[in-house]
């Protein structure tokens, strides 16, 4: 995997995670212009994430791309804590650690 492919994989998971956070933000403001804009941004970011994934899959195997999706298990809950004041318990973070350990084992 080249550095460019790695960065594209990271960009895809960042766009996907940001899209989920936008949709969450939109759900709290359904009947406002900001809610509509957040929903549109969420859909657009998900579309960009899929485009990046398709682009990367031209040169990478699916088994090389899929582990990056686990990054959402960190980014989305962190975004929930930072942007929405959500509470995440310690056992959740322990589970995330186990998932990431599994991802590292698949990559190396």
From TrEMBL:
InterPro entries: EmrE-like. The chain crosses the membrane at residues 34-58, 65-85, 91-107. Keywords: Membrane, Transmembrane, Transmembrane helix. The keyword Nucleotide-binding does not apply. The keyword Amino-acid biosynthesis does not apply. This is Putative membrane protein 88. It comes from Achromobacter xylosoxidans (strain A8).
């Amino acid at each position: 995997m080249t550095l460019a492919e790695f960065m594209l994989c990271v960009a895809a998971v960042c766009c996907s995670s940001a899209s989920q956070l936008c949709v969450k933000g939109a759900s709290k403001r359904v009947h406002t212009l900001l809610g509509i804009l957040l929903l549109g941004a969420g859909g657009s970011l998900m579309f960009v994430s899929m485009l990046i994934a398709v682009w990367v899959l031209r040169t990478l195997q699916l088994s090389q791309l899929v582990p990056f999706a686990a990054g959402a298990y960190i980014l989305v809950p962190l975004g929930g804590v930072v942007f929405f004041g959500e509470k995440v318990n310690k056992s959740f973070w322990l589970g995330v650690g186990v998932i990431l350990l599994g991802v590292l084992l698949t990559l190396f």
